[in-house]
Every structure is written in C-alpha cells, then in structure tokens.
Amino acid sequence: MQVNLTAAERLAIIERSSKQVGPGVFFSTIVTIASFLPVFLLTGMEGKLFSPLAWTKTFILLVDAFLAITLTPVLIALILKGRMKPESANPITRSLEKLYTPVLKLCLRWRKATLAVNVILLAISIPMMLRLGTEFMPPLDEGSLLFMPVTLPDVSNSEVKRILQVQDKIIASVPEVSHVLGKAGRASTATDNSPISMIETIILLKPKSEWREGMDKNDIINELNARLQIPGVVNGWTQPIINRINMLSTGVRTDVGLKVYGQNLDTIYSVAQLLKKELEGIEGIKDLYVEPITGGKYLDVVVKRDEIGRYGLSVDDVNMLVESALGGMILTTTIEGRQRFTVNARFAQDFRNNLEALRRLQVQTERYGPIPLEAVADVRISEGPPMINSENAMLRGTVLFNVRERDLGSTVQDAMRKLDVAVQQLPKGYFIEWSGQWENQIRASRTLRLILPIVLVIIFFVLYVTYHSVKEALITMITVPFALIGGVFMVYFYGVNLSVAVAVGFIALFGMAIETAMLMTIYLNEAMQRLVAEKGNSKETITPADLREWVIWGAAKRLRPKLMTVSVSLFGLIPILWATGVGSDVMLPITLPLIGGTITSTIYVLLVTPVVFEMTRERELRRQGK
Q1: Among 13, 76, 93, 149, whose Cα sits 20 to 30 Å from the Cα of 265?
Q2: For residue 190, what pLDDT is reported?
Q3: What sign for the dihedral angle of Cα 475, 476, 480, 486?
Q4: Neighbours of 482 (CB within 10 A)
Q5: What is the rounded distance in angstroms from the CA atom of residue 309 to the CA atom of residue 317?
Q6: Between the CA of residue 37 and those of 33, 442, 460, 585, what are the distances in Å?
Q7: Whole-number Å distance between alpha carbons of 159 and 167
C-alpha cells in the first residue's frame, strides 16, 4: 500500500519523528561519551596508547550528535520525496518480523523462565570472568626478539667478546632466525649505563610462513634458551620495543622487578638472594636473577705517604703517572672539518695488562732516577659494587624475572603469597616494592575502579534526563551486566587475559549496549502513548492483553532501526577477528568484548527488555490504575 502525502503532511511527520528519536539519539551519544571517561583518566603508557582512541571517538560522536538533530531532518525533508511505502513493504524487514514476533511472544508468555535463563547465564559468566588471567597489556608481537643475558660483573672484555660470538653463532643456527646482531656493554651515548657484563642481542625472525610446522614464538624462545645454556650466564628474553618502554617507565628491563631498598649494599644483596631463592619454582617465572650489586673488581693504588717523602715525590706525582698510564692523558685536539677529536696518550697494553706490570711502572724522581711504582704505592685488586643504584634517596637492589606461559597477575600473586609466608620480617630499615608491568597494572586497575562507579552515576543521570523516570532509567541500565555475558564468553573461549585493552573494550561496550536499549525503550514508550490515545489511561479500559499487544507492536514494528544500529557496529568489528600482522594481537582483546557483548546485549534488548517493560507497566496498572 502506497500513501500520497502533501508537502505539509510530510514535513509534519518528519518533525514529529525527529522530535521522537532526536533526543534519544543525542542522549545515547552523551552516554557513549560518558562511558569513555575512564579512558581519558588513564595515565602512563596505557593513557598514551588509548587516549587517542577515546578522543577520536568522542569528537566523532559529538559531530554525529549535532548532525543527527540538525542536518539529518533537513536532508530527510529534501531527499525523501515521492510515494512513501509502509515498512511492511520491505521484504527484509517483513522476513525479520516474521522470525522475531513468534520468539518475542514466546518470551512474553514465559516471562519468568526468560528472566531465569538470563540470570543463570549471568551467574555462569561471573566465575568464568574470575578465572580469567590478568595482565597489564596484551603482548605485542614485534616480529623480533631481544636476548639479554648477564654474566659475572668482573668479566673481561676478551671473555665477553668470546661469549657474544658463541651466542650469535648458536642463535643463527635456528632455522626461524633471519639476522642476529649483538653488543656487550654500553653504546656511545650518555643515556646507556649498561655494564660490560650485560649483552643485548637483537634477533630478527623470518616470516611465519617460513617457520617449521607447529612452531610458535614461545617454542622458538624455549629452543634458543635450551641451546644457550652457558655456565656463568643468566639468560633473559624479551622484545626490543617493550624492553625500552619498561626501562623508561619503571626502571627495570624485565616484565616484573622486585625492588629491595635499604642502607647497606651487602644486606640488600643478601635479602635479594633470599627472595630469589623463594621465587624459584613458581610456575610462569622465567629468566630469574638478581641484579649484581657486589662482585665488581677495582684496581686500588694506595700511596705510601712515608715512602714518597723519602723520594721527594708528592701524591699528585704518583696520581699523574697512574692517570696517564691507565686512563690516558689528553695531549691535544685535532679539528677535521666540523668535527673535533681529542688525542690521548697512555701506556701500551703490555705495560698495564696485569698487576705485576703495573707494579713495575716507572716513577721519575729528581735525585734517584726512575723507581718502580710498588716502591711508593700498594697496587692491589679489591671488590666493590659494579654499579650503585639509588631511588628516592635510598640504595636499591632488584630481583628481576619475566613471565611466560602464564598470565602476569596470577604469577605475581602466587609469588606474593609465597613471600608473605617465607619472609615474615626484613631487617630494620629495609623494604621491598613490586615494579615493572605489575606496577602499571595496579595503577591502571586502581584508576578504573575509582572512576567506573562515577561513570555509572553519570550515565544513570543522563538516562533519567532522557526518560524523566527512574524505573525506565534502571530498565536501560540493566542491559549493561547482561551485555557483559557475551563479552566474557568471547574473551574466555579465545583464551585472552583481562588487561587494559579488554577493559577498554568493555567500556566501549557499555555505551553501545545502552544506546540499543534506549532505542527499544523509546519505541516501547511510543507504543504506550498510542495505546493510551486509543483506549484511555485507565485499568478499566486497558487489559493485560492490550498491553501485550502494544508491547509486541512497539518491539516488532521498529525492528529495522535497532538491527541496523547493531549491524553497523558488528560489520565494522568482525573483520578484526581474522586480522593478522603487527598490531592485530592488541586489537583483538579490544574487539572480543565488543562483538560478544553486542550480540548478547542485542538479544537481551530484543527479548528481555520488552518482558521487563511489560511487567513494570502491568505493576503500574495494578497499583496506580493507569
């Protein structure tokens, strides 16, 4: 059936429809923006990573809300002309209504059973969520590895060079490895304080299509780690980018660090060794070692003051010889173009490569000629800290470890429980502090826990302003926990750990779920208005059968806009499930809650919201008579 409308009638319908839907669209956009408030308040690396997403979506939604209530009605008036067909003329809409209406009638007939099924699914999802592992951020596959072994702090340059060459040769023999480049010690920059005992080897891997069948990244790491077991060397595995981020943000170069603070390096080291011993054997802890703060070798030249007086020397004379012989003395500066180079002079290697050679260094005197250095100074090797770390004006030692083949949260919690039992009391003035990605995870979790209740209050207030009814605002808010069902199921069965990325996905889901529920509530309220206009607002004129008939009308006759809202989101998200390449492993944890939650929230809105709406209207009719 086609309807011919005059221009005035058509504009009146457009105006009435815009007034009906416009506020709902506008306020649902405000709800979505409010749901992203926790993302805006994230700090650290998580804030830098996800705040661009939140800002981008917020600006898009603000423009969308403005256009929806200003430009869209104008465009409809200009473009939507000619003969208007009823919604039933659309074959897709007609088919969907034929499928949806019997199911909705069944749910309305068995209202308690429908609610019970949803509550049972919600109850099942809670223990599933509690069983999920936790981590700060999903690991990004960088396509490369960073091998960071450490050896004894007094290792010589020649020995560490030999170890480096042996390791590079072993690593290059693995079929999945493309290139290997290693360095020992610090780079030529003031910001690199790496000791000579720390090796950094970047391993570039071949494309996954060239890997052996059944191999994944963990298998490659385990194989390399088994091959690279060298006495006196503790292996460490990470990735280049995340390693730099960890070092800059937390000061530790592994996934987790247990910092020990105190006033004495020897005591700090003994406490750190005790903690390391207790952490051994915990599932998930890999590459466990204590950052060396003792065991460094120092060359001490102690001047014999009574002897230098006999030879007519001063302390400066002896120090000048030691400085020029060992460290070198700047003689001049050469200029080549725009570059300047210092020219240093020091003794040849053969005159300073062992203690006896150093003791035989000749010190020139005025009256007695050259004399050996040992005549006026004691030359000996002593032990001391290879590097002194301090933080917050206190000396610091660190127990470092990575987490593999298990989630970060449960691994650290197991370690905490074990240390609480084994180490009941530390020496006075000493304390420990967890750092690394665990520190970031705790900070992000604390921020989300503080702000989420405030966000829920803001969303409830926006819904109340929209409906002017506490009951309808609550009916819409109930969608949120039931939307979590699908999100939890998707995350659980995909084997993804809870992280900030998953939390951002759930936050985005809140806004989408409430937006769909608001549309349903708006159309159900329209059905109630039509019912009142037709039969009056009294329990004498409105029967439960009338109420059900119009609830079905409000839910089924506006099925297309609800499904369009959901479909647009799903069609944009589902391709991410099959995405590959760098970055896909971070996008997936954000997408999974959105896809699963959108599906379950849509089912809830289409089948359960009409049930709850009908029950509340029946209750109002019985108690208030209207």
Answers
A1: 149
A2: 66
A3: positive
A4: 23
A5: 12
A6: 7, 19, 14, 24
A7: 12
Q: What span, in angstroms and rounded, lies between the C-alpha atoms of 191 and 150?
A: 19
Instruction: Please tell me the pTM assigned to this model.
Output: 0.77
Residue 24 Cα distances to 14, 186, 464, 507, 603, angstroms: 16, 61, 12, 20, 20
Bridge-based pairing state of the strands 394-403 and 339-345: unpaired
* Average pLDDT score, the chain: 83
Q: How far is the C-alpha of 205 from the C-alpha of 174, rounded, in Å?
A: 10
Residue % of the chain over a pLDDT of 70:
96
Q: Which two tokens stand for residue 348?
A: 């040849």
DSSP string, 480-549: HHHHHHHHHHHHHHTTPPB-HHHHHHHHHHHHHHHHHHHHHHHHHHHHHHHHHHHH-SSTTT--HHHHHH
Nearest to 501 by CA among 52, 43, 36, 50: 50
- Tell me whether strands 390-391 and 296-303 are parallel, antiparallel or unpaired: unpaired
What pLDDT is stored for residue 361 in this prediction?
A: 85
Q: Left if phi > 0, otherwise alpha if psi is -120 to 50, otherwise beta: which for 281?
A: left
Q: pLDDT class for 4, splitting at 50, 70, 90?
A: low
CB 57 within 8 A of CB 50: no
> Can you give the length of the chain in residues?
626
Distance, first Cα to last Cα, the chain: 35
Amino acid residing at 91:
P
pLDDT 10s digits, 302-313: 988 888 888 888
Ranking 26-35, 255-264, 393-402 by mean pLDDT, the lowest is: 26-35
Q: Give CA–CA dist 588/26, Å, rounded.
A: 29
- With CA atoms as reference, report the closest residue to 525 among 586, 581, 456, 469: 469
- Rounded to the nearest angstrom, the gap between the alpha carbon of residue 518 and the centroid of all alpha carbons in its chain is 31
Phi, psi at 80, each rounded to 5°: -80, 90
Q: Which positions ≥6 away from 429 have C-beta within 8 Å?
A: 262, 263
- The amino acid present at 220, given as its one-letter code, is I
Cα–Cα distance for residue pair 93/602, rounded to 1 Å: 17
β-pair partners for 377: 303
For 36-156, where are the alpha helices, taking DSSP H only?
37-40, 44-69, 71-79, 91-109, 111-130
User: What tens digit of pLDDT does each residue of 546-568 get?
Assistant: 888 888 888 887 677 777 777 87
Among the listed residues 559, 548, 565, the one whose alpha carbon sits nearest the alpha carbon of residue 606 = 559
Where does residue 154 rank: exposed (0-12), middle (13-18), buried (19+ CB within 10 A)? Answer: middle
What Å distances lie between residue 295 and 151, 266, 272, 455, CA to CA? Answer: 11, 10, 14, 54
Which element (helix H / strand E) includes 609?
A: helix 609-624
CB-based contacts of 251, cutoff 8 Å, min separation 6: 257, 391, 435
